[in-house]
What does this fold into?
Amino acid sequence: MKKTERLIAVEDFISVKELSLDQFYDVRIGEYQITLQGKFDSDITKKLMPVVTFALTDYGYLVGELNIPIEGSEENVSVRIVLT
It folds into this structure.
């Protein structure tokens, strides 16, 4: 699966949650996972809480993970969200 297809799936998913990739200062597209990193914003956590369970790390960051299905494919995109 192309990286652009995975990124489009993530962008579509968060846009339904009324969020944007612009709310994250770092977007990393790895071979197996996309990581979105941004500053803590209660608006982001409130909109994602129904589908993402966040955990507090020892360093004080909130980290959550989810899998997003790709339309027209049997594959999912693994997404890691880190809020600092």
Remarks:
- Residues 3-16 form the longest helix (14 residues).
- The first strand starts at residue 26 and ends at 29.
